[in-house]
Specification:
99 residues, 6-stranded mixed beta sheet, 1 helix, 6% helix, globular
């Protein structure tokens, strides 16, 4: 069962293409899918994380992937549904990229 809930940290995904440094697409998402099964099935080998930063409640993730037409890329944030016992609290997440 897929559960979509508001994501308190606004996720900004800045997608950078390997063929043109001037071609940048910014997508914003305020939701996340929390599902352990989907998390386990999600592959992350079709992109590279170049940078991650956090400013207040905004998480910015810069990724690269092959291909020149990023306009068709779709990203989804997937949570494993596990809450790690740490301070501050942490969660396991993956970015699903369909390109």
């Amino acid at each position: 069962m897929n559960i979509r809930v508001p994501f308190f940290v606004l996720l900004n995904l800045i997608l950078i293409f390997s063929c043109d440094d001037n071609n940048v697409i910014v997508t914003k998402s305020e939701s996340v899918i929390i599902n352990a099964e989907i998390y386990q099935e999600t592959t992350t080998n079709n992109y590279t994380i170049k940078d991650i930063s956090m400013s207040e409640d905004i998480l910015t993730v810069i990724i690269e992937s092959s291909g020149c037409d990023g306009e068709t890329w779709e990203t989804t944030l997937i949570d494993s549904s596990a809450i790690l016992e740490s301070n501050p609290i942490q969660r396991n997440i993956k970015i699903l990229l369909n390109n």
